[in-house]
Amino acid sequence: MFNPILQELELALRTTEAQHDPLTDPNLADGSIPELNSEHLRELTERAVYHVYKDVYRDRRLAKKAQLGPEDLRWFEVLFAGIK
Q: Which long-range contacts (CB under 8 A, 24 or more apart) does 34-42 make?
């Protein structure tokens, strides 16, 4: 089994905004992720990503140093909406 959220994270971090926007990815755009087979696994993944990236997400200077583009930050905003 693969985790589509982590797969999307990996793709988002290695591409530019012109190459890929996670919010328009056809695999995640509708918000459903049947591959995870449970809401609990989805929530755990979102929390884990949040705890790893929260400081970078909150500080635009750190985001720039980490080479997070506006599309990555928009995706994090959606991903982290229920966690904050």
A: 35/1, 35/2, 35/3, 35/4, 36/3, 36/4, 36/5, 37/1, 41/3, 42/5
Which residue is it, tokens 């959606």?
A: 78
- Checking if the pLDDT of 84 tops 80, the result is no
Length of the chain counted residue by residue: 84
pLDDT for res 34: 67
What global pTM score does this model have?
A: 0.80
How far does CA 83 lie from the centroid of its chain? 13
